[in-house]
C-alpha cells in the first residue's frame, strides 16, 4: 500500500501560478500523474510521468503545466502557469501499480480555485 499526500493547492487569480506537490510514502517506480475533477464533471487526466521522465499532457494544459518528479524524494510536482478559471478543480495525485500498471493509488485531493 502507498499513501500519497498532496499539497500546494489554493486560490489564485487568472494568469497566476501554483505548484502542486505529491509525496509518496515509499519509492514508486511506476508512472505517476495528476488528475482533476471539476464540480459536475468526470475526473480527467492532467499529466503523467514515468520513472524515466517521459511525460504526457492533456491538450488543455499543454504549454502551461509542467509535471516533474524527484525519485529520490518520492515526490511528483505539477507546475501550473497561466492559470484559467476553467482549471478550477480538485487535483488528485495518482500512482500506478501492478505488472501492467493496472492498479491505482490516489491521494485525497487538493482544491485549486482560479478567480477571473
Outline the structure in words.
The chain has no helices and 11 strands. With 116 residues, it is an all-beta fold.
- What structural category characterises the helix and strand content? mainly beta
Q: What is the C-alpha radius of gyration, as a whole number of Å? A: 13 Å
Q: What is the strand content? A: over 45%
Distance between the termini: 40 Å
- Helix and strand string, N-terminal first? EEEEEEEEEEE
How many helices does DSSP assign? 0
Count the strands?
11
Task: Indicate the mean pLDDT.
Answer: 96
Helix content: under 10%
> Biggest sheet, in brief?
7 strands, mixed
Weakly predicted, low-confidence segments: none
Shape: globular
State the main characteristics.
seven-stranded mixed β-sheet, four-stranded antiparallel β-sheet, globular, mainly beta, 116 residues, 11 strands, single chain
Question: How do the strands and helices of this protein lay out in sequence?
Answer:
Elements: E1 4-7, E2 10-13, E3 18-24, E4 32-37, E5 44-49, E6 55-57, E7 65-70, E8 75-80, E9 89-97, E10 103-106, E11 110-115
Parallel strand pairs: 2-11
Antiparallel strand pairs: 1-3, 3-8, 4-5, 4-9, 5-6, 7-8, 9-10, 9-11
Amino acid at each position: 500500500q502507498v499513501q500519497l499526500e498532496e499539497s500546494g493547492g489554493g486560490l489564485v487569480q487568472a494568469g497566476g501560478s501554483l505548484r502542486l506537490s505529491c509525496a509518496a510514502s515509499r519509492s514508486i517506480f511506476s508512472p505517476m500523474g495528476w488528475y482533476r475533477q471539476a464540480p459536475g464533471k468526470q475526473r480527467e487526466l492532467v499529466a503523467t510521468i514515468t520513472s524515466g521522465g517521459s511525460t504526457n499532457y492533456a491538450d488543455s494544459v499543454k504549454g502551461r503545466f509542467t509535471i516533474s518528479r524527484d525519485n529520490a524524494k518520492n515526490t511528483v510536482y505539477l507546475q501550473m502557469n497561466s492559470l484559467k478559471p476553467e482549471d478550477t478543480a480538485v487535483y488528485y495525485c495518482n500512482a500506478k501499480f501492478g505488472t501492467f500498471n493496472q492498479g491505482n493509488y490516489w491521494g485525497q485531493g487538493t482544491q485549486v480555485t482560479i478567480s477571473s
